[in-house]
Amino acid sequence: SPVASAMGQTLPSGHAAQTQRDAIQKVQSHGSASHRRRRDPYTWMQSMCRESYNAHFAHNKSLCPNIMPYQHDIRGYARYGKLKYMPVNVAYMEDYKVKYRSLAHMWNDWYREYLRTADFPRIVVRLEDLVFHGRYVIQKICECVDFKFMPYGRFVHTSNSANQNKGIDLSDSENGLLNSIIKYGNSTTRRLNYPNFQLRAAQEALDKDLMSFFHYKYEPLADHDHVNEHA
């Protein structure tokens, strides 16, 4: 997919639904379901600062995530001074582009659409649970879709996948499994590069129902904030 992922190698549910319907028609005798990984919004926004894929938003990597514009952003583009949030434009396909109010709103809209408006079978799994509880999660998925889970032998993550994506990266790269365990297992990294005014913006912008549904907690404000919105 050209979007390759701002949100994990997939399209918003409206477009994914049609793709899914086409696939189901080909495999009706076996049934079909869509699997969607979900990521913690705080760490996902951090990753978008490093690699934004087809998402376009003004940002300085040292002052990002910028749910709300920094003064640095406003000095570069005066129009952002009139906006509460830093807008994000995503070109999912050449003829399909979407505008979001901010990175946080992008996370909201994407996952809300899959949960509330998608009309095709799907399984929703948190990426963090795949990283830390892979065997248990896969067993539950197998039970859900009536597949046989082989309980014997050693459970391993594989870097290969049945589709065009690469599965879980087992290398020592930034996105590799070991670094994912380090990143998601350390609660302090979740709030890196979030000064208080950005944490406050996250609390205001991230959908409360979605955060509760996925059991993600809001990051509290820091007692001592060394970076401010005037940076």
Summarize this entry quickly.
With 231 residues, this protein is of the alpha+beta class. It contains 9 helices and 5 strands, in the order αβαβαββαβααααα.
**Major sheet size, sense and barrel closure:** 3 strands, antiparallel
The radius of gyration computed from the alpha-carbon positions, rounded to a whole number of angstroms, is 19 Å
> Count of helical segments?
9
> How many strands appear in the DSSP assignment?
5
What percentage of residues falls in helices of 4 or more residues? 25-40%
Give the N-terminus to C-terminus distance in angstroms. Answer: 37 Å
Order of helices and strands: HEHEHEEHEHHHHH
Strand content: 5-15%
Rounded mean pLDDT is 76
Low-confidence stretches: 1-9, 19-32, 162-167
The gross shape turns out to be globular
Question: Strand arrangement, largest sheet?
Answer: 2-3-4
Structural class: alpha+beta
Task: Describe the overall structure.
The strands form two sheets. This protein has a three-stranded antiparallel sheet with strand order 2-3-4, covered by helices on one side. It is built from nine helices and five strands, in the order H-E-H-E-H-E-E-H-E-H-H-H-H-H. It is globular and about 60 Å long. It has 231 residues and is of the alpha+beta class. The N terminus is likely disordered. A hairpin with a 2-residue loop joins strand 3 and strand 4.
